[in-house]
Specification:
Helices cover 41% and strands 16% of the residues. By secondary structure, the chain is an alpha/beta fold. It has three domains: 206 residues, Glutamine Phosphoribosylpyrophosphate, subunit 1, domain 1 (4-Layer Sandwich); 205 residues, Rossmann fold, CATH 3.40.50.620; 70 residues, no CATH class. The radius of gyration is 25 Å and the shape is globular. Pfam families: Asn_synthase (PF00733).
Length: 643
């Protein structure tokens, strides 16, 4: 994963100039392993260098800025080899004159961009609309600082950081926060799809990519046309990314989404070597009932009906046999050293390293032993293809078309999808479709069990956990099912699950790309969930690439019972690190309830195991920043003296 640090300042503002100079960064003083992408009056950008794959740099001429990452031109579909793109001449002028809009409209990929309109004295900063490139922003004494990894800032810049108490409390309640803040005060993610413009000391924000407008078109309603468009778009996206590498390993779970990527990789025009990796969960952990929180009992029962074992090797082997591709099999063991949570590099927010710890070890081994250049996955498929058991199709049909022909058929199909009675679906169709009353998802964050102190949760609503994009979608006139679909865009920060393996190789999620999302957003919910089947359109579009057992399978592999056993096996460590830790000392967690939970025979029946383990990662994160704040300035002084 490409790392970068970018600084913008006003060269006519004395405070800004002095602040930048105090950092001691320039082309001659940067770290040896880093490359200067831009060194001009008012702008300095450096990164960890270019390599085959997602790490590249596209300078815009005459001080016009730079694009870091990997971009593809929508007009070119030949991916027999990696296409080199140069942003010069008319292409650069169009990007600069449009304030970056032309980059979003004509190209796609994974990138971070600074576009400098020299004439207007404006800087436009944005990243790819899906937010696949990590990008954060903070301001210090007139200097705008953008970066991919906070550990680089902590090492290179003499700044102090404070923990955002409100954010951390919310993160402890729900570890997949999407609103625009981080665990550090003053540090925020660059909003995906939006542009930040800096001019004369002021910052403004505007929309570059509007998923609501795309979804409002809904012009791919016909089933065969939608299936063909989806198939072609996903294949083209996989072709593009595969052309960047010579050696690819697909993380093949055996589920629908990764199996679709396997089928597409089998048809790429480039000559990349392909292998599969399946990491299954200890099969002895699959006998416990899965604890499901945050939903009512009926919804929990529906989810349990489609949650399967974490061992999907049988299905991965079917795919490997189908495409005659090597399958590397590894297993997650119940023996997990959770003290390693304290060994990770500083991050802007607590991470969920425990979910990928052993997998990271496996990936590092493959990088060293097999020279894997990229790990592909089917991540984000649930959101993009819309994996759901909610009664959405009939509501959307009524919302858009009223009593027009086909509504009763959609009610019947929706009943099959949701496992609700026909009469229950009919009632929801009338209320939320015909009458257009707001529909609320059965999942509510505030319904999740928590050990966070009540004073920190008082007054919160579910909207307090939403991003600005999610709120815009809620306020839009999209039908209920399309709102649910579009909100999947806010769950795309998959780089948060990449650790040491990302230092030397790329992690590519082809489904989570701008072209695929644009295609899917144009397809009505009734077509996306064709036949009343979760991910129904995807099953149809890729039917010939999938073994029948996978295409028809409705069950999803889950690691829930695995984590329940991890908690029981590490109860002593959890008690030692949490009961007398900073989270309790600083009033985040209720010590009495935490003690009672960990003393119970089955702690996960009080609070789900992943939440308990997330408390441990948050404790490690908080302790790390307590130490980092004390040493950051001293470390910077040592760095400057060594240069």
């Amino acid at each position: 994963m490409q790392r970068y640090l970018a600084l913008l300042w006003d060269p006519l503002n004395l405070e800004s100039v002095r602040t930048f100079q105090s950092f001691g960064l320039s082309s001659s003083t940067k770290p040896a392993a880093w490359v200067t992408a831009c060194d001009a009056s008012g702008m300095f950008v450096m990164h960890t260098g270019m390599r085959r794959g997602a790490a590249g740099a596209y300078p815009l001429p005459h001080g016009g800025g730079v694009v870091l990452g990997r971009i593809f031109d929508r007009r070119h579909g030949d991916y027999t080899s990696m296409r080199q793109i140069v942003l010069d001449g008319a292409a650069a002028s169009e990007i600069i004159d449009s304030g970056g809009q032309q980059l979003v409209d004509r190209y796609w990929g994974t990138y971070f961009a600074i576009v400098h309109d020299v004439t207007a004295a404006r800087y436009h900063v944005f990243r790819d609309p899906l937010g696949n490139m990590p990008s954060y922003h903070m301001r210090f004494k007139g200097v705008e600082i953008f970066f991919s990894h906070i550990e680089d800032c902590a090492r290179l810049l003499p700044l102090r950081y404070s923990v955002d108490r409100q954010y951390l409390a919310r993160w402890l309640m729900f570890g997949n926060l999407t609103f625009e803040a981080t665990g550090l005060e003053g540090v925020a993610p660059v909003p995906a799809g939006d542009r930040l413009t800096f001019s004369q000391g002021r910052m403004t924000r505007s929309v570059l990519w509007d998923p609501i407008a795309i979804a409002s078109a809904a012009d791919l309603e016909q089933l065969d046309a939608a299936a063909s468009a989806l198939r072609a778009t996903v294949q083209d996206t996989v072709n593009a990314w595969a052309s960047c590498y010579e050696n690819i390993t697909l993380r093949l779970s055996g589920g629908l989404d990764s199996s679709i990527i396997a089928g597409c990789l089998a048809h790429v025009p480039s000559a990349a070597r392909i292998s599969y990796l399946n990491v299954c969960i200890d099969i002895d952990s699959g006998h416990e009932q899965v604890a499901i929180a945050g939903v009512d009992r009926r919804t929990a029962d529906k989810i349990r009906a489609i949650v399967g074992s974490g061992d999907e090797r049988y299905f991965a082997r079917l795919v490997a046999e189908r495409w005659r591709t090597e399958l590397i099999e590894r297993q997650r063991a119940l023996v997990m050293d959770l003290t390693r949570l304290w060994d990770t590099a500083p991050t802007v927010s607590p991470n969920l390293y425990f979910t990928v710890m052993e997998q990271e070890d496996i990936l590092l081994d493959l990088i060293g032993s097999r020279d894997t250049q990229a790990f592909f996955s089917g991540q984000a498929g649930d959101s993009i293809f819309q994996a759901t058991v909610q009664p959405l199709p009939a509501m959307d049909q009524a919302y858009l078309h009223g009593f027009r022909s086909g509504l009763w058929e959609q009610i019947l199909a929706t009943s099959r999808l949701s496992k609700d009675s026909v009469w229950s679906v009919l009632g929801k169709t009338v209320r939320h479709g015909l009458l257009r009353r707001p529909y609320l998802s059965p999942f509510a964050i505030l319904n999740l069990p928590t050990l966070v102190n009540a004073e920190l949760t008082a007054g919160l609503s579910n909207q307090d956990f939403e991003s600005e994009l999610s709120k815009r979608i809620s306020r839009s006139s999209l039908p209920p099912g399309k709102k649910d679909h579009a909100k999947g865009l806010t769950w795309s920060a998959w780089y948060d699950f990449v650790f040491d393996s990302g230092r030397s190789t790329d992690h590519i999620d082809p489904l989570n790309s701008q072209p695929v999302w644009e295609t899917m957003l144009r397809i009505p919910t009734t077509t996306v969930l064709a036949g009343g089947i979760s991910r129904g359109l995807a099953r149809r579009a890729f039917a010939d690439l999938l073994p029948a057992e996978i295409r028809k399978r409705q069950v999803k592999g889950s690691g829930s019972s695995f984590y329940q056993q991890i908690v029981k096996r590490n109860r002593t460590l959890l008690r030692e690190r949490l009961l007398d830790g900073l989270l309790v000392e600083q009033g985040y967690l209720d010590r009495g309830r935490l003690d009672a939970c960990l003393a119970a025979p089955e702690p996960s029946l009080t609070v789900p195991a992943p939440i308990l383990l997330s408390y441990l990662t948050a404790e490690a994160w908080l302790q790390k920043w307590a130490g980092t704040v004390q040493t950051a300035v001293a470390a910077h002084s040592l760095l400057l003296s060594a240069q």
